[in-house]
Amino acid sequence: MNNINYLETLPLSSITKYAKGKQLNDGVPFTGYPRVHPSDKNKLILVNDPLGTEPAVLEFKLEDILFVEEEPSAVTEAGEGVPLVKLWIQKGAVGVKLEPFEVK
């Protein structure tokens, strides 16, 4: 089962769009497919480049999100839409990045 299929079994995250009074120059943008974290309600999973050749799964704390922007949806080969967002994450925040690799 690939990362996209696993994450599709989880309900979509309902991210509140707000700026918390902070400037976007205090943040770093990450674009991807948002999902609810499977075990921690205070975190969010973002699948970066979900339909590309090098997808990565990023994990952020909700409190580190400064702002959310909707992006145009990506479309799979089957014609299904994949909603994308741009998250602005507070500089200095700690995130987790999981990348697939081939074991040789």
Structure write-up:
By secondary structure, this protein is mainly beta. The chain has one domain (3-97). It contains one helix and six strands; from the N terminus they run H-E-E-E-E-E-E. It has one helix spanning 3-8, and strands at residues 27-36, 43-48, 56-61, 65-75, 81-90, 96-98. It has a six-stranded antiparallel sheet with strand order 4-5-1-2-3-6. The chain is globular, with a radius of gyration of 14 Å. The two termini are 19 Å apart.
User: Low-confidence parts lasting 5 or more residues at pLDDT below 50?
Assistant: 1-14
Please bin the fraction of helical residues. under 10%
SSE string: HEEEEEE
The dominant shape is globular
Helical/strand content category: mainly beta
How many β strands by DSSP? 6
Strand-helix topology:
Layout lengths: L2 H6 L18 E10 L6 E6 L7 E6 L3 E11 L5 E10 L5 E3 L6
Antiparallel strand pairs: 1-2, 1-5, 2-3, 3-6, 4-5
